[in-house]
Fold this protein.
Amino acid sequence: MPSNFSAKNVPLSATQPSRAPAHYLIAHSDGGARGNPGPAGYGVVIEDNTGEKIAGLSEYLGHQTNNFAEYQGLIAALEYAVEHGPKALKVVSDSELLVRQIKGIYKVKNPMLQDLHGRAKELIAQMDWFSIDHALREHNREADRLANEAMDRGVGRRSEVKAPTVLSGEEFEGVVEEGRVKILNGNLPEGIRVQLRVKK
């Protein structure tokens, strides 16, 4: 695209080719604020198009709104793609408002969001391909977890890490390294009792 191109007020469909390239990034993005406004943060999980996780991004944003945090998550994902490449990105967000505003379906009336919307569109204009879709929160759980961890850090609260549920009789593969068993196909919580059976 020309360097002087401005996508701020142009519908997304008019700025990007619809066909996905061979290689692109997928960003699961979420933002939230406790109290709205209140302590806010975002979380972004970056994957390649095969589903392999590449990066996790999160930041505490101070006293802000949900929508502010959602936009900051989108901007963080776009900045990552511009900096690291490929400049092709599919964003999955559970904010229907954000998705519809970026697509040009809804107008952006809030002055603060107008600035963030403009920054997002400037970054989108630097992309070779961009797509954004809405998903329910249950399909964005890891990004939601990162956003909540960012909020916890900001208010000085320690995040609770839940141990994985392990069913009695469940089998795990492992290998002995330097006298310790390393689990290859899962995670076990600290202190759990196990029995080992050596396979030949």
